[in-house]
Structures are given as structure tokens and as C-alpha cells.
Design goal:
This protein is of the alpha+beta class. Helix content is 51%, strand content 14%. The chain has 4 helices and 3 strands, in the order ααβαββα. The longest helix has 49 residues, at 26-74. The termini are far apart.
Length: 196
Amino acid sequence: MSDQGGLQLLPETRRKITVTVPGENRLLYLGVVFLILSATAVFGIKFYTSQELESYNSLRADVEKKNLEINTQAKGEDGADLIEKIRVTGKQLDIASSLLNSHILWSKGLERLEGLLLLSMSAADGTIKFMALAPSYTAIAKQIASFVSNPKYIKDVTIGEITTQTTGKLQFSMNIEIERSTFLRPDTTPNPTPAK
């Protein structure tokens, strides 16, 4: 303010910033630019994280909603959990398929052995003879009991000589008399008709 009538209310203390040396305020300018860039980066990162968090929460809510729908649809009328039933059924199918696969192998193997028999040959006595190894006498007794327990297939079981091997196992021979009508195919050779 200028002096008006001798009364000066505020002293005039304006100073002019003068740059005497070029580049003297460069650090001040760099500091202000760095502060502006830092503040922009902080606000940008906060905005980005809030958008990502919002997107994550939205996806999580959608997944929970779908799971709830699946669980409510999976409940049967009797209250049993359908998903658990599907898991149990899957395990049962795995077990059954492995059993069927091994059954098919045995069936095909026995069928091939039967196919190797000549039609003119027949099992006169209906016995199967074999030699095997067992870990103990108890195992042999259990095997005999297993064979004898099913008279539909096996008529009689006789055991031959039992010898101890150097490994500690028992080698034995066994004769199994089978029920011919169950195991052997019927005689397909034509009966000769007497000549007249």
C-alpha cells in the first residue's frame, strides 16, 4: 500500500525474489515435482487396489452363490447329500471295474485253456492237479477249507506231499476233483448211431 495522507496501515514489506545465479531454486522445483508424482502414485495405487478388491469380492460372492445353489439342488428329498452319494458311487465303480477287469482276464485264460483241449479228448477223472508254495501249514489248511466250502464246484480235495523249501515256504501238490457239469463243457461229439 502506498502512503495516503501520512497514514500507513500496513507496512509495505514485499520482497521480490530475485535469482542471481541461474538454477539456484532447482532443488525446490525438483522437490515439488517429486511430491506431486509421489502423491499421484499413492492415489493411483489406492484406486487400483480398491477396484481389484471390489472385483475380488464380487467374484467371491458369485462363487458362494453358485455353491449354495449347487448344494441346495444336490439335497435329495430324503435329505441325503447327492454329492456324497456320487463320490461313494464313483469309488464303488472303481472297485467293481478293477474286479471285472481281473475277472475277465481269468475267464479268458480259462476259456483259452479249455479251447486248447481237443474235442476228442475228455477229462476222464475230472481232476485238476497242481503244485504250489505256501507260507505256512495254516495257509494250506485255509486253502483246503476254502475249496471244500463250495460243493457246487468242487467235489473233493486231496493234498499230496508237503516239503519245506530253503526259503521257509512249503511246497505242496494238490488234486481237486471238480463238479464236471459246472466246469467242463458238455460233450459235443455226436453219438454214433447204430447201423441198421
